[in-house]
Amino acid sequence: MECSNKTAREMFQELLAARTPRYGFGERPMLVNVDLQCAYTRVGESPTAYDNDPAQMEYINTLAALARSRDLPVYWTYVAFSEDGSDCGVFGSRDDTQYSLQNIKRDSPRAALDPRLAIAPGDYVVNKLMPSAFHETNLQSLMVWHRCDSIIVTGGSTSGCVRATVVDGLSRGYLVIVPEECVADLHESPHFANLYDMHKKYADVLPVSQVMDYYRGVSGK
């Protein structure tokens, strides 16, 4: 194993500068917005919340609007559990505090999607129970129904549910794009370490401006 004093941010920036080969864009993407809910987005209201780029929600709203304008699907997930938290399974067995995962209850303020998001009729809003947006949800069947060959993943956390969704997407044979400004984590070290891993192995991590330009050029037919 190579040892280094470089930070995760520095390693990611060096990887970008090296211009490694890309997977590329597909022809019909699904925009998958992962867990942009108040438990994770309302910084100052919850210790589990985090942010990255201050315009993250604005960027995601723009991506969603561009997708809809091309008749391409938009998918939002949130994580929430039953009143007793039993459906969280082993995922919730590590601790049990006010802010623990299994204590995000359905229809609670922490489960609600961030009010800054512009969610439209026709978008898919899905309660997931595990890290990946693919795990036991209808995402795979909707990908087939809409003839999608790729996913564009936003949300959080970079090191958790975003990464799990990215890896599952690649494992299912989809091209995966991560707009850098549209994902976030609690700390920059796991954030950049996982951007590095995803860009090196599983996805193309790109500036959101490039993803917007791509959407503008997609026919959606």
How would you explain this protein's 3D organization?
- With 221 residues, this protein is α/β, with parallel strands linked by helices.
- The chain has a single domain (8-18, 26-217), classed as Isochorismatase-like (Rossmann fold, 3-Layer(aba) Sandwich), CATH 3.40.50.850.
- The protein has helices at 8-17, 38-41, 56-69, 139-145, 158-171, 188-202, 208-217, and strands spanning 29-34, 74-79, 124-128, 150-156, 175-179, 183-184, 204-206.
- The mean pLDDT is 96.
SSE layout and pairing:
Blueprint (H helix, E strand, L loop, with lengths): L7 H10 L11 E6 L3 H4 L14 H14 L4 E6 L44 E5 L10 H7 L4 E7 L1 H14 L3 E5 L3 E2 L3 H15 L1 E3 L1 H10 L4
Structural class: alpha/beta
**Radius of gyration, CA atoms, in whole angstroms:** 17 Å
Strand residue content: 15-25%
SS field, number of helical segments: 7
CATH fold annotation: Rossmann fold
* Oligomeric assembly: single chain
Secondary-structure element pattern, one letter each = HEHHEEHEHEEHEH
Count the beta strands.
Answer: 7
For the biggest sheet, the summary is: 7 strands, parallel
Structure characteristics:
221 residues; Rossmann fold; globular; alpha/beta; 15% strand
Brief digest:
The protein is an alpha/beta fold. The protein has 7 helices and 7 strands; from the N terminus they run H-E-H-H-E-E-H-E-H-E-E-H-E-H.
